[in-house]
Amino acid sequence: MTWIRTIPLSEADDELRRAAEGQRSLYPIEYATPVHPAEGGGAQIVESHSLIPQALYHAFATFGSLMSPDLPLTRRQQEMITTVVSVTNRCVY
């Protein structure tokens, strides 16, 4: 659980809702279900950025864009890189 104030998607204004839905639309379907869901069903890591919707969108849309199937890396290569970075950073998600 985050220790900062967050805004659940159920209480989001239009700007926050558009930012959250916009970045989510860029992610592969395998990412549709959060590993660590927040009370409202969204991802805790995304909600931790909910006070600044533009930052939320840009931070998470970057990753979504990097996982695009239109890029020359295969999905296996993308996942391998993501896994190595997460392990290196001692990240649990």
Order of helices and strands: HHHH
Give the overall shape.
Answer: globular
Return the average pLDDT rounded to an integer: 86
Main sheet summary: none
Q: Tally the helices: what do you get?
A: 4
Low-confidence stretches: none
Distance between the termini: 13 Å
Strand percentage lies at under 5%
Helix/sheet category: mainly alpha
- Beta strands, count: 0
Computed over alpha carbons, the radius of gyration is 14 Å
Q: Percent range for helical residues?
A: 40-55%
What secondary-structure arrangement, pairings included, does this model have?
Blueprint: H1 14-24, H2 44-47, H3 53-66, H4 75-88
Helix pairs in contact: 1-3
Features:
93 residues, mainly alpha, 4 helices, 0% strand, globular
Notes on the structure:
The protein is mostly helical and 93 residues long. It has a domain at 9-68. It is built from four helices and no strands. The chain has helices at 14-24, 44-47, 53-66, 75-88. Helix 1 runs parallel beside helix 3. The longest helix is centred in the middle third of the chain and has 14 residues, at 53-66.
